[in-house]
Amino acid sequence: MSCHLKPISREEHLRFVAARSSVSHLQTPAWGDVKPEWRAESLGWFDEDGDLVGAGLVLLRPLPGLKRYLAYLPEGPVIDWGAEDLEDRLRPLLAHLKRRGAFSVRMGPPVVARRWSAEAVKAAVADPGAHRLGDVPATAREAGADDVAERLRRMGWRRTEPGGEDGFAAGQPRHVCQVPLAGRSLEEVRGGFNQQWRRNIKKAEKAGVKVVRGGPEDLGTFYGLYVETAERDRFVPRPLAYFRRMWTALTAEDPDRMRLYLAHHDGEVLAAATMLTVGDHVWYSYGASTARRREVQPGNALQWRMMCDAHERGAAVYDFRGITDTLDEDNRLLGLLRFKTGAGGEAVEYLGEWDYALNRVLHRALRFCLARRRRT
């Protein structure tokens, strides 16, 4: 089946997203409003009958002083990645972006490659011979993922190697942790928690931790905890304006696209988190907490409430987002992996992000600058 590509309206794009069970929140039209430093464009793939069969949000970042752009499709585009004519769907994308002045294209195919159950991750962490998830057999390998990767390589796409710490790249995470909810009762979901998780939830309940939904007026409270978390965990925080813009843009598209939760104890907010929903996929997006009164376990109470609400609205999966793929005991991110998989989550590996050089000179210059920035 031949497809042709052309720009589409926000309304067309949003209808396409709404008709699917799961599309990344980074591929909704509103996400372009969250990123004003990029120029956003919605693209659509149409079949021979004129039906919209694929869509993608492209973010275009200009080079200073030049009318040339880095084009980025985070966790997209949303097309049939198993189609026999995959190459014929991607070539028009490259041609269109080249006409737009793009010198390099980066995309993140929403294609799962491997999965490790919570039990498999626990066993891997305990194995002294395993240093990364890839060192241990996966619980499941997704059919077709290797074929997609090979076809991309033959076209000239190159996988982006993680540039951040222990698998956390500057783009979107290749490894995530997901708790399956479809076809399970809340009792079954809770039964999948490890002993520590169940104990901590009981501690929070006994201590009187209350988790409530907040609104835009509570973003300042969330942000105070977020800055404290950034100082403690040594990362650079986003500005408060980013979260306010995120709330305004996403809730304008769908009033329930973004939620804010706050964990209270004795009149103080000890933890807070944002939750995003598209279709039947729910993401834990940003989390924040104080180091005070950690013994009452507000973090576990917060996550459990979010999972319960996700389950109530019919979500198929609760997505904890990024995890490290390292299994080394001395790595500070291993605790985060244990925390997320302790909730019965499985480790999921996507194909990762891929680059295509439309102008090799500018593309190499960009890669050199990014590598130098990471070293300094």
Automatic annotation (TrEMBL):
SUPFAM superfamilies: Acyl-CoA N-acyltransferases (Nat). The keyword Endoplasmic reticulum does not apply. InterPro entries: Acyl_CoA_acyltransferase (IPR016181), FEMABX (IPR003447), PG_Glycine_Bridge_Synth (IPR050644). The keyword Cell wall biogenesis/degradation applies. It comes from the Bacteria. Keywords: Acyltransferase, Cell shape, Cell wall biogenesis/degradation, Peptidoglycan synthesis, Transferase. Signal peptide: none annotated. Coiled coil: none annotated. PANTHER family: LIPID II:GLYCINE GLYCYLTRANSFERASE. Belongs to the FemABX family. This is Aminoacyltransferase. It comes from Streptomyces olivaceus.
